[in-house]
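DM from R.C. (forwarded with permission)

"hey, sorry to bug you on a friday — could you get me a structure for this? deadline for the figure draft is monday and I only need the backbone to look sensible"
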Amino acid sequence: MKTVFDFLVYHKDKLATGLILCVAILGVVEILQATPFGPGVGSDAVVYITSARNLLAGHGLGLVNPDGTFRLLPYFPPFYPLVLSGLGLVVGDLIEGARWLNAVLFGGLIALSGLEFQRLTRNDFFALALSCLLAFSSVLIRISSWAMSEPISLLTAFGGLFLLLKYLDDHRRASFIFSALLVGVAFLSRYAMVASFLAGCFVILLFLQGDFRKRIVQTVMYGLLSILPMAVWFLVDFSATGTLGSRSSQMISDLPGRAADLILPLKESFYNW
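My reply, with the result:
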């Protein structure tokens, strides 16, 4: 018994890492079990899957109108349907591909968050607890059970921000570049992930070692790298449609009312936890 105890104490870091990975695998199984007939498809998911199918059929990334004309992907950024179309080349069935993609992304988010928290805090128990909280989050399970862009945007956003924290420690250029690109991909997956882009810029501006001028230069470089994927999409979209994502801007006077509309969904998310 003492030998077993000594082994567990000596290898506790590896044991915690293994348990976190087991919880991540459990998360993959959860999503597969929750979607035996495929992920939920409706509303936004219809646009994603139809656009991916049209791209595979040679029409382009977008929708075919009733009159036969083509419309470039409206309202949504393109990364998720692009990934679906890539999966379609491999698995054929986009619905089944979306199901497995969401399951793997959910497991990846659990593993990434748990392992990174373990690295940052050196606390195996809380890292494992965080992994379990994510694995049994009704909010994350629900959004991962639909063919939507949230899972891929969350994983790339947090992956980018975790790499940025690593860059603050090791100052490796690779960490900086890949962090910016991942945050940019998250933004290219879902417009709301502009928050991760802004968070990354503020982290560099406030916490990077060095004088203020260096931080400004690094922030600008990070911002330009992060915004590059979306800038390319905006250029393609505007040249084809004359709009940015088929969306229009709102008046500043409307913002307080829209902010108030967020209170109820936030309450529901809190209660679900």
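R.C.: lifesaver. The longest helix spans residues 212-241.
me: no worries. The chain is about 75% helix and 0% strand.
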